[in-house]
Amino acid sequence: MSSPLTSVPALADAREFSCDVLVVGGGTAGTMAALTAAERGADVLLLEKAHVRHSGALAMGMDGVNNAVIPGRADPDDYVAEITRANDGLVDQSTVRQTALRGYDMVRRLESYGVKFEKDEHGAYAVRQVHRSGSYVLPMPEGKDVKKVLYRQLRRREMRERIRIENRVMPVRVLTAPEDGRAVGIAGFHTRTGEFVVVRAGAVILATGACGRLGLPASGYLYGTYENPTNAGDGYAMAYHAGAALTGIECFQINPLIKDYNGPACAYVANPFGGYQVNRHGERFVESDYWSGRMMAEFAAELASDRAPVYLKLSHLPEETIGAVESILHSTERPTRGTFHAGRGHDYRTHDIEMHISEIGLCGGHSASGVRVDDHGRTTVPRLYAAGDLACVPHNYMIGAFVYGDLAGGDAARYRAYGGTLDRAQLEEAHALVYRPLLHPDGPPQPQVEYKLRRFVNDYVAPPKSGAKLSLAVEAFERMADEIAGMGGRTPHELMRCAEVSFIRDCAEMAARASLARTESRWGLYHERLDHPEQDDAKWLYHLDLRKSASGAMEFTARPVEPYVVPVPEFAPPGGPERPLGEVALVPVATAGPREAPPAARPADRPDPLPASGPVAAGPGPRLLGLLALAEDSPELGLLEPYLTDRDPEVRAAAVAALAETAPAGTGTALAARLRDGDAAVRAAAVGALRELAEVLDGGAGLAAGLRAALDVPDAAVRAVALEVLRARRLGDAGGYAAALADTAVEVRLQAVRGLVAVDATAVLAEAAADPAREVRVAVAKGLAAVSAPAPEPLVPLLDDPDPLVRGAAFGALASAGCPEPLAARAAAGLDDPAWQARAGAAAALRAAAAGRAVPALAKALADRNADVRKAAVLALLAHAAEPGARDALATSAADPDADVRAYAARAAAS
């Protein structure tokens, strides 16, 4: 913790830096911006108010990407159209299209760094369908390590020559040139020493993330937010005060989350495994697609009805599926999630997960509120860029953050450091903002003032909105400006928190005024106006831009939507000139109605504990400290080898971790050797490192030999990862995988099955259909459909398996392998199986059968008592949509009680 400051540092004593490209924020977009700018030859300074190794929303890990447009699995134009629909027509399609076109190359680039994306046995990306419109979700099995991978890139020797990292430096204002208004640097301070910091730059890239600390969580805990709580709207406020336009600030981010826990409900994880959202009666109710505010409106309506509570349903899933979901949700997504459920005595096998709604926030990447940018990340201020969740590129998510970090870094790299005189008034304003808490150290503390501010956000700004409540909000935020200026603080850390509260206040006022200015309802729950309940495209199919006027007021402009690159029939932007709106007028709220009027009748048409202390653990020994110091310099393998064979297992495990972070040449062979270590912790570290680095390991003979030698290690996790890496690096063969089918451990046999699929060893794979473990037989069924030349015959024995999950998987595999007669007849008969899983698989199989056999059987299946069977039948009928009988059958599902079934049936009507 930082020490108290005894005096205000003098402005003349500021520490000054100079660079070509200044990147503010070391998270997703900022890291990529710095890497690209450096690769283009710029001298880069990366500032982070925490530490780049652990900063940003990505630091906790990521279970997958939501918007991967992979060739052959999704079409860029379809993606652009879907984002346009999700954002009710208000998008600059040229910006969204950049993510659609560049996302695949970014996935490949990240993979070259060591980020691991899920692939099938043949090395193709295993994209899942969660959105009803297409397959965009790409899981990341080792997503918890993404930030470590990026940090490793920053610390490569060639990057360290170009990128200087200054941790614990918090900017508070962007500096602009008096002569032309272009961005020329920043002013801020060091959050540990309190030193004032000034940076000159040729260009500035803001990548500070969302304003996650805006609304107050239901828990009341200031930092218990859905978004990363360190993202307090810093970049929103800095861009605004620099004169940049912000847009869509009235379009809030609101998400489903677990009740009483600041973790997402994770439909993107659970749905591909068979989980779904239901009300207390077990009914699916979400009609809209998962990335729209209209879905959140449906969610809120269900919560407010007698059908509440709402749950994420997992209890119907088999044990191995629940285990797979737990391994993601309790490690990569939120490490504390399992502890939370255990504390309540809940288990996914016996309890479904109660869901609720998050507090409001501002976020471009998950909604549409951010700094206005063009298709290279340029803002309206020359040489000022924005990327990631700060930039308004609707529903851009993680891949879009990387794409726009790359675009901004590449474009900014052409500028060189500013050599002119910095504006003294701007520096003095920033200096005063930073140090004013020191002038009255006994003033109200930051937590107290911040709680009050954010409670006003909940009371007056959170949807449903009204002009009166929003006007009360504006009055409260204006009044609180003086309270915020009077906050007290003594340490640099407290100065940082006080500055964050000023950013939150700026964002809160922007959100309230923008919500007042848009006099319609749009985006479902994101902007629901009770006093303007209808969507008004004629007047409001416009972007609402917000700027700081010359007088210091917030003024607005209605900006026409750019002509669509991809036509979307539902929307017809009117075009034309911008419509200046000026400052927004407040609704009179000083009195309840006219002051002297008597009480009026209501119009008839108005709708109504601390851990126990124990012995203090000894600190790390000198050998371990030496290793940790060495690892900071990205050493070559030769320098790490003595530590890898150290007699202390703690040192060996730390050396394995250092290898995983730096990955010098020879890492693969060295890690494979540690799989045979005598200590379980060292082996576990090697297993994790090999799994994380599987796609980038040097795959020579040494690695192959080490992995094969590990197949005899008694540790099952070691044998499993050896097979996994052999398959991923294309180093295994059918004989080795076939031998592993006799392994005693299920997880090893599962990896053997995947290996056999990778080498198209269909005959050997079919022999595993008699495996005693259900999980293996299910994997065999799916694998027989995934080989390069699938055939239906090997699946026949599995159609009679005693386990319904195996029968379901075997029938489902026929959809890819082919379903000729007499198997089509068996699939039709399978629609009467007692197990719903088998019936759903049989319906899927009929997708590949002749229409004459499939359509009548599937039409009957539309009356099945299980919603998942009816959903499978609808999806299979879509494959036969050219047949009149299929279209007639699908039309009957328009009134199905299940929302998913109705939504998929509607696709036939739209085609």
UniProtKB/TrEMBL annotation:
Q: Name one Pfam family in it.
A: HEAT_2
- Would the keyword Transmembrane be found if you checked this record's keyword annotation? no
Q: Which UniProt keywords apply?
A: Flavoprotein, Oxidoreductase
**Residues in the signal sequence:** none
Ranges where the Fumarate reductase/succinate dehydrogenase flavoprotein-like C-terminal domain occurs: 452-566
Coiled coil start-end: none
Q: What is this protein's name?
A: Fumarate reductase/succinate dehydrogenase flavoprotein-like FrdA
Q: Which organism is it from?
A: Streptomyces termitum
* Molecular function via GO: electron transfer activity; flavin adenine dinucleotide binding; succinate dehydrogenase activity
Kinase keyword on record: no
Alphabetized SUPFAM superfamilies for the sequence: ARM repeat (SSF48371), FAD/NAD(P)-binding domain (SSF51905), Succinate dehydrogenase/fumarate reductase flavoprotein C-terminal domain (SSF46977)
Chain spans, region Disordered: 593-617
Q: Name all FAD-dependent oxidoreductase 2 FAD-binding domain ranges.
A: 20-393
GO annotations under biological process? Answer: anaerobic respiration
> Record's GO cellular component, any one?
plasma membrane
